[in-house]
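During the second half of the funding period, the structural biology subgroup turned its attention to how the target accommodates small molecules. The most pressing case was zinc ion, which had performed well in the primary screen but for which no bound structure existed. We therefore specified the complex as follows and requested a full 3D prediction, including the ligand pose.
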Amino acid sequence: MKCADLAANLTEFLEGGLDDDAETEALEHLASCDRCEMVLAQTRSVLDLSSRHGRLSLEPAERADLLERILDTRRTTR
Ligand SMILES: [Zn+2]
């Protein structure tokens, strides 16, 4: 699994919506990728906030923003 694949499946992963194979691949990627682990932590806190406001899923714009963040960190060195 690549960073972009994980980003595309991130909310499903957090909501437990992935099938077993995809979930295993996501976990394997997270174990080997610090950037995605960081983004996952950020996404999780966004979802926590959202659920407290009665909204469980990310808006498309938020999802696109997270994807952009993953791809940006991969392109640039900080
Ligand atoms: Zn990654």
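Two results from this model are relevant to the next phase. The chain is about 75% helix and 0% strand. The mean pLDDT is 80.
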